[in-house]
Design a protein that fits this description.
- By secondary structure, chain A is α/β, with parallel strands linked by helices.
- Chain A is built from 17 helices and 14 strands.
- In chain A, the strands form three sheets. Chain A has an eight-stranded mixed β-sheet with strand order 3-10-9-8-7-4-5-6, sandwiched between helices. A four-stranded antiparallel β-sheet of chain A has the order 11-12-14-13, covered by helices on one side. Chain A has a two-stranded antiparallel ribbon with strand order 1-2.
- In chain A, β1 and β2 form a beta hairpin.
- Chains A and B meet through α1, α4, α5, α6 and α7 of A and α4, α5, α6, α7 and α8 of B.
Amino acid sequence: MAQARRTTEVMEAIRRKLATRALTPGERLPSIRRFAAVMGVSPSTIVEAYDRLVAEGVIRSQPGSGFYVAGVPPSLDLHLPEPQRERDVDPLWVSRQSLDTGRDVVKPGCGWLPPDWMPQAAMRRALRQLARGPDAILTDYGSSLGPVNLRRILARQFAEEGLEISPESILLATSASQSIDLICRSLLRPGDTVLVDDPCYFNFQALLRVYKARIVSVPFTPMGPDLAQFAQALTTHHPRLYITNSALHNPTGGTMTAQTAHRLLKLAEAHGLTIIEDDTFAALEPDLSPRLATLDGLERVIRIGSFSKTLSASIRCGYIAGPPDLIAALTDLQVATNFGGPSPVSTEIVHATLSDGSYRKHVEGIRRRLTRIRKDTSARLVAMGITPWLMPRGGFYLWCALPQRRDASEIARAAMRRNVVLAPGNIFSPAQTAAGFMRFNVSQMHDPAWEVVAQAMNTPPA
Amino acid sequence: MAQARRTTEVMEAIRRKLATRALTPGERLPSIRRFAAVMGVSPSTIVEAYDRLVAEGVIRSQPGSGFYVAGVPPSLDLHLPEPQRERDVDPLWVSRQSLDTGRDVVKPGCGWLPPDWMPQAAMRRALRQLARGPDAILTDYGSSLGPVNLRRILARQFAEEGLEISPESILLATSASQSIDLICRSLLRPGDTVLVDDPCYFNFQALLRVYKARIVSVPFTPMGPDLAQFAQALTTHHPRLYITNSALHNPTGGTMTAQTAHRLLKLAEAHGLTIIEDDTFAALEPDLSPRLATLDGLERVIRIGSFSKTLSASIRCGYIAGPPDLIAALTDLQVATNFGGPSPVSTEIVHATLSDGSYRKHVEGIRRRLTRIRKDTSARLVAMGITPWLMPRGGFYLWCALPQRRDASEIARAAMRRNVVLAPGNIFSPAQTAAGFMRFNVSQMHDPAWEVVAQAMNTPPA
């Protein structure tokens, strides 16, 4: 009994060392004899504890050499829900594959930039500054709208783009997805119809399924949604809401023209349609494109976004800009459902990083790097018979047609077995008309991604 | 002479920044070194200029942190939606008053401990450690369940309490409120009835209103819910869900007895009732009380909680422990609605702070301090004719009967005009039977709270 307790204590001691990074992956553990002395237990207790940690996969034994911390960091270890790999290729498929597989998996299907593209130095400065900051920011709840210093930065940025609003028209939330969720909760009633683009960001569909909303999609053209079909859909289906990205549309990278935006807003007004404009990728634009929210002045357009693509996805901070009465309702809703918005620790890091002198240059650097890598990746894909639907003005996506009616979902399933996450077309297509398309994230095309794609192209279709 | 002129120039530069709002109240001034470089003067000139501005009251020095523009911090300034102060005393009233008023407002009505009660040193260590941590934690999305190292700590803690579950039965969320929200989304259908205690935590009601659920309440006794009425409610209303705190019930501080827990679970089983056990205050218990989740083994009880009461409310991290199939469904739901759970930055801070050798002692210290302050506060209230309904075993709440049928909502409104947030009884009572009760947070009874309460007691009832 006492023996069991001592073993547990030794295991705990090792786990603490791992937790505090006193021991890191690949490092050798203290020798059995030495650690027995340190812990004041018998060597056999240490042997027992190490053996159990080996069984858990926390450490590994190297015969003749000793015990070593296992290779994969704890957050990526073997406790992941493995069956998820074999689930249906539905709108949640790529999300779960991208989030829940480890660093041994390559992810050209995911929706973010690699860590070494992000403003690491500025964030680390922000963390050190926060470590010396006021007590209250570290431990108190934040205000219900989110800190005004960050909302003021957003308001200034919107003003530069021609949208003059007060910081009180901005509510901070924990992500762009949660922003859309709050708006849907406030506006959608059971049975409502929601209009989306075809193709569109797969999580719009996953979210709308939660609401059991009727999803109607309109083909997206390189200039924005097909307006004739858009008008038809308004007349036929009376949608309550339209969700879109006008700048750097996900997955196509298309950008709405000024004329499309203007006409679309006139249609929306005539039919009492509310629009959510998801600006998540806007910071990656080389220059400003027409924005529905700016044209409309936030009358029937609600602008949402986040800092996940150019600052950090880890800090979990998004925003909603909308009419004051809607913002007031959403603020209450966020208190009721989450007792407030993003972490004040997070918003402080975002504010400090955005205010850091290096941030603007950092974003410009990302844009330049993406321009180059988009071109190279496109050329290499074209050589394999994979054709970009258009060459986007910015961002990290290439939406591509596969040759010879190859089925993207089948290729993605096969790729997953080789530890490569791909994003097959139909997860973006409510009408399921994109089976022959694939979305590639040009910043994540590391080996063996190219090899897997090349092999799939040489394999004759099933 | 030249030195004096340069000092004046630096002061002028700061004043210009204030005039143009390039610097706003509460904002941190440039560091001495950096500003010296910018202005092309010596650091001592900057020090001199800053000191003089401090003397003028234009800026203030925060030792160890830097210099800040004086006046109200930005998050607390006049841009706050003032009308909120006059809104109805509904279940959201105390939340909004507590979150959105500044530090000049005293908040015995709020649900948290003051910042100087929290593990500031350990959190600052965690932040410094994170500033040296891996890139991916700072900028990547986290896994969909949340990091396994933190889930493992929770699983071990549950095991110590007699609830043996795997870390895969635990989903991390952004708060206890959001945990309940996710469960409600998964389980509730329109028109469903939900059972709560009377009184109960006001945000349960705010949240259930979002679902347009029918709320039925059962009187709470010092031993748990009144079982006769509980049984009656099950038969009459067929509720889908019961939400409660069995340890340190909010607002009463009551604790369910083992017998009540056992009988309640038998009733739940007979009627197919699911239970959410909100364990948010459990860490403040002096010793372990009977827990529904432990008795039941997570068959029909879902355990939720957070770290907001003893670690930090700012980091926004909660958890759900439940049956595997429910956890799988909730995980997908959280990806669809928030693209994942809490910030990896936050979970890393929580994990490091919980693993810090000082944490257990910190919590013990809070408990001891609360025991003393509960006793003192109770005595002082009793002397005013305000009677605690029971003396809680732990926690920071005293649920008190006011003398002579005084109306708690009226007192709370009057207190708000004097910058004191109180928590009047009826916001906790679905049946509106607690007009003569008030919940006091003993850790937040700073002046002028006592003065306001004393004055209200001397005022004859309207």
